[in-house]
Each structure stands twice: as structure tokens, then as C-alpha cells.
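Researcher: Here's my situation. A collaborator sent me these components and asked whether they could plausibly form a single complex. I don't have experimental data yet, so a predicted model of the whole assembly would be a useful starting point for our discussion.
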Amino acid sequence: MTSKIEESYVHRRLEAHRPLTAKHVFLQWEWLLVLIFVGVLVMNTMLSPYFLNITSLRDATMVFLDKSFIVFPMAFIMIMKEIDISVGSTVALSSVGMATAYNVFGLPMEAAIVVCLVVGALCGLFNGFLITKFPELSAVIVTLATMILYRGIAYIILEDQASGNFPEWFGFFGWGYVYGVPFILIVFVGIAIAFGLLLHKTTFGRKVFAIGHNDVTSKFSGVNVKKTKLIVYTLAGLMAAVTAVFLASRMGSTRPNIANAYELDVIAMAALGGISTAGGKGRLIGTVIAIFIVGYLQYGLGLINIPSQTLMIVIGALLLFAVVVPKIKDLRKS
Amino acid sequence: MKKFLMLLVMSALFLSILAGCTQGNTSGTTKNTDTEKAEKEDVNGEPLKHAFIFKNTGNPYGEKMMQGFEEAIKESGGEAILRAPDQPTAEAQIQIIEQLITQKVDSITLSGNDPDALQPALKKAMDSGIKVLSTDSAVNAKSRTTHVNQADPEAIGRIQIEAISEMIGGKGQIAVLSATSQATNQNLWIEYMQKELEKDEYKGLELVKIAYGDDLRDKSVSETEALLKTYPDLKGIIAPTTVGIAAAGKVLTDKNLAGKVALTGLGLPSEMASYIENGVCPWMYLWNPIDVGYAAGYTAVELVNGEITGEVGDKFEAGRTGEKVVVEDGDGTQIMLGEPFKFDKGNIAEWKEVY
């Protein structure tokens, strides 16, 4: 038996490269998520006879994956102890930019998609610029301002009207299959792997963690904090634009009020995925499982026609569970 | 191991809460297996499932329509599924449509949040054999089999202009307070109002502004206040939406403008009774939303049974609302329910109890 002090010291020292004992593997947050995920699947199967078949499970991903692209950069931002609540408005503005490029300026659809991605990235870059330029302002306030600003610009451009008439092939993004697999799912897997490697296998990812632990020491250790933040916020804008492409494709048109309150869903998924709001902690695989938990939970409850207000209660309870449970573990430790 | 066990217990607890939640709240669907009409069943011997999607939750007008729809479906021996997203957006309705396709419902009736954005989702539904129709707020002709229209839009536009003209003596500035700028139904009615205003007899009327209250109470209130400030000579307001007219009624009452600024439009009798009685709104119009939902329910049933196909000239008996005929509507077809009904001081006391 080692003493308490020694134990916590050893624990802290080893946290960087965790020993993979059976106990540790099982106690990881991701396993709990897997457990919840299986629970959701079992519950849905018991509640609805239509849930458990390949077509249903496959088509459900087309419903809930659109906003999931933003969860990854949001995880990066939250690991850096910050937040971006303007992503929903960025989705709206970039999709409006795409529709305007196509319908007003007569650009080909391919170019309009590029415009969409550029607008999204610029929105993110602007957020990053403000946050790094004025570090005394909190990210919540800055992105709250740009949230209203971006949505407002979208309203001014389209004047509360819808804009669509995109070419037929554009519908493929939201509705198409490749050998029976939804296109959106393939893109999702690709982007998830890319972000996973970026966070866990590159020096850039280690810088993100370092900033989350302590941005002042990171700065004095030679990490370019400003540059890292700029890149991460730009990525968030870019992924919001990817969401915009899929959403506009699904609806065949866009309007300034789309993606309302998406930022809340995105933050909820990241938090449920074990990304600590206190910064410095989290693994991307957890967010992937969380996306599927929330997605299939909503879809399954929709299949038995739960009123949408009740659905909000369920998601809220799940999130509360996610943020409270780790605290209970900490309580027992102390 | 203790911690692990505790996590297990916690998650089991949570899941059981979830399960409890779901069992307590299936009130959205109404099974009706014990009625005598067991003949209207699908191949598996289960009752036919008819779904209704409204614009958003918490709208009294939508709840009345759902009530009528459910009534019609029950009479046919089917099962009614009533859904509405928490936000009045097209993407939220698409999600619900996907879920209904997976449930293999037999028909989907909806009040669309956007005329065009739902097209891919509704096409997918129709391709998988589901009958799709819109009511209240139409979706475009390619995304539906037919549309159940509350009343002739031309008549709705015309009578409101007639009313306001009579109220203010045929002379002065008027304004329109509408719902959202994307609402298919309101936009059509306003178009007919503008056409009506071109007639010689309305030369004295000047339409100064079309304001959008978005069917939100607070925005409608501030839009009304803005109208009164911007146009001090304003003589009348037409609000062709139940949320808008109630908000305008409140503002005019608070500012003591009864007799100075006239108000008319489309309103729910239960919400408007006090403003009709205090003279702010001399009279207004509406149809019975319960009847609209009821007729839409019967149309859905007849489409699924194959009695009608939604082609021009189809006729069917829509329960207590009588015989209905499918007529032309632009590129598509529609079913019209008749003239809007007038509510004034004489009959409001009786109708405010009904809806």
C-alpha cells in the first residue's frame, strides 16, 4: 500500500503516458460511452420494430451527421479552454454566400461550393483574429457578437427569402449513396480520421493540449499560441461551411435562418464525448461515439413519435449526466 | 472495480429514466384498435397509419388542426401520428419526414415551413409508396399529391380589403401585418389584396407597408408599434394571421385607439373575443381550423384507400364536412373548403367557447 500522497503523485506523473492496465482501460470515459451507445441501441430496438435494420440505421446517419463535422474543431477549441458559439450563424452565412454566388453572380455550382468554403473559413478566421488580438475578451462574448453579426449579414443578403434552384447533381451531397453507403457518412469518416490524427499524432495537436493546460507557460515554452488559435478557429469556420454544403443540398435551397441553435447541439456532443470544458483533456474517439449516441437517440425516439419537447429533456438529461459523472469520480478520489 | 460498478449503476439508472420518459409520452399517437371499423387495415392486419406534421409546437391554431385530423382518422379506424418540430424550420420537418418514412406510415399530411425545401424529402416519401398532401401552408406541386386549402385565397384577400374599406369609410392609409415573409399562404393572400386594391372603388385606400411579425407575439407587437409611429395618419391594419391580429389588438387596446385605427384580419375567436367586444376590431374572419384538419384527414384516408388519386375532378365524401371536389391549382391540384366565416359582436360570445 502506497500512501495517498505518493499515489496521487505517481498518478499525476503517469497521466502523460497512461499504463494500459485492465482497470484503466475500463475506467476510461470512452468505454462508458460505448456502454451508453449499446444501451441506446437496445432501448430503441425494444421500443420500435423499425429501428434495427440496415436501411434504417444507415439512413439515420444522413439525418444527424450534417452538424457533426463542426464537433471536431469545436473539440479542439474546448480543449484550448475556449468556445465558439458562432458556428450556427457561420453555417447560415456560408450557405447564403454559396446561393448568392450561384443565383446572383451566375458562377458554376462547383465555384459556388468553393465560395461557401471560403466564406466559412473567413468567418472562422475573423473570430480567431478578434480572440487573439484582444486576449482580454472572453471567447463567449466575441463569438456571441459574431454569431449575431453573421446571421444579420445573411438576413441582409437574402432579405428573409429562400434561394435555391441548385443543379440536380448538387442533391448528391445530402441524398446520395456510394455503393449503398451514404456519401455524408464517407465524408464524415474521412474528416474524423483527419482530425483524430491531427489532434493525437502531430505536434500541432500537442500544442493544442499544451495551450489548454496553461497558455502562458505554453507561450514561454515556444508555442505560437496566436497562430495555433487562428488555425483552429479557421478550421471551425471551414467545417461549418462543410455542414452548410450538406444542409443546403439536403433542402435543395437555403435561407438565412437555417442551422438555428446548431452551436448548442455541437457543444453538447463535444462535452458528452468527454472533452473537458476546463480544457486540456479529451480524445476525439469519444466525440465520434457521442455523435452517434445523440444521433441514434434522437432518431429512435422520433420513430416512436415522442413530442419534440420531451426529446429536448432527454438530451438535456444526457448532457447533465455527462458533465456530472466525472465529478463524482473526482469526489471519490479526494 | 467499485468505481466501475458505480458507473454501471449510474448508466443503468439513466437509461431507465429514459425508458420511463418514453413510455409516459407516447400520447402523440392514438391507437384506435377497438372501434368497429376493423376493415381499414393494411396487409399485416395493423391499422393504417396517417401522420400529420405542423409548422412548430405551441401554436394554438395548429393544435386545433391536429385535433380535427385525429378525429377524422379515428372515424376511419386508422391510427393518427401527430408531430411538430420545436423550431418552425424546414430542416426540422425533414428529420420528422425521414422518421415517418422509416416507420412505413401510409400517409403524411403537412403544413410546410417552406414551399420548396421539403421537396427532396417528400419525393423520397412518395417514392416509397407514402401518400403526401399539404394543408394550411402549401408545399410546391411536385412535392405533394394534392393540397387541402382552408378557403379560396382570392376570397380571403378580397373580403379583408372590403372589410377595412367599410370600417374606415373608403379613405386613408392602411398597413398589413403578416407572418413570416416565407409563409406561402399569407403571401398569396396579400397578393390578392394588392390586386383587389387596384379596383376603382378602393382609390382612396393607400397600402403604406407590409410588416412581418414572424408569427411571434413580441415581434408582432413591436412591428405594430412601429407602424403606428411611422404612419401617424394610419387608419387601418389588416393582420391575416392569428398571432399578428391578437398582438395588434393588444397594442391598439393599450394605446386606447379603438375607433381611431381599425383592425381586421384572420383571428382565433377565443383570442380575439375581448378586442371584438371593446370595438378595437369591429369584425374579423376565419374558417374552423378543426374542420380544415378534419377534411385533410379524410383526404389522406381516401388517397390511401385509392378512392381518389388527387386528379382534377375527383369527388369524395369528407365526413361531416360534406362532399369535396379536387380542383386545379397552378401546376397541381387542391381541395377548397369554402368561404371564410365572419365573426362580429353578434356571434363572438358563442364562438369563443368553440375554438
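Model: Some features of this prediction you could bring to your collaborator: Residues 20-40 of chain B have pLDDT under 50 and may be disordered. The first strand of chain B starts at residue 29 and ends at 30.
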